[in-house]
Structure formats: C-alpha cells, structure tokens
Amino acid sequence: MKLNDIFKRAARLAGTGEEFLGENDTENFRARALDAINSVLFDLCEKEPYEGLMCDADITDKAADAAVYGTAMFLSLAYGDTDKSTLFSSIYNGKRAAVKSSIGEISDVLPRTGAV
Length: 116
Prior knowledge:
Elements: H1 3-13, H2 18-23, H3 27-45, H4 61-78, H5 82-100
Helix pairs in contact: 1-4, 3-4, 4-5
C-alpha cells in the first residue's frame, strides 16, 4: 500500500475531498499529511519516517486502516476541527489497540510434570 492511499482516505474523512486537492496548492497540506502518517506509523509499527507520499509502506491491512484514522485525527486537529479530531481519536485508539494487541507468536505455556 502506498502512503498516498492512506493520505487520500484520511483527507476525505477529514472533509478535504478531491475537489480541494485538485483546485488548491496542496504542498503544505501534503507535507503535514506526510508528517502525520509518519507519526502514526511509528506509533503503530515503529517504522522509520518515509520520504514521500508515493513510497510503499510494508504494513498490515489492520495497521493501514488504523493509520487512516490516526492521520485524519492529526489533519483535523491541525486545521482546528476539534470535533472531528475527537471523533477520529476515539476510533484510532480502538483500532490502535487492536493492532498493538495482536498475537505475534504462540508458545506452549502449559505446565509440564516430571523432568524437563
């Protein structure tokens, strides 16, 4: 998945659709979005910062979905829409918990009897 896919979904959720992106100079907006995506992906997956929105992100679908809401949360906050930011924050926290609590390895934890 490209970071640009996360950006576009987050921008639509934050109320910044294709019309805004097509009609305005969005260099500053995209820079803020990249910073937000990098912050969210570091929080979720401890990924190093990416250089641009066209980079491929090697993350799970669950992490990508959570990253969309985290990015929307930061973008809403950056542009002063605290109501949306609060909403996206609660959604992001739930999705973040699901990503962070996933089981990475199953090990045998049953007690053994006798000599080991």
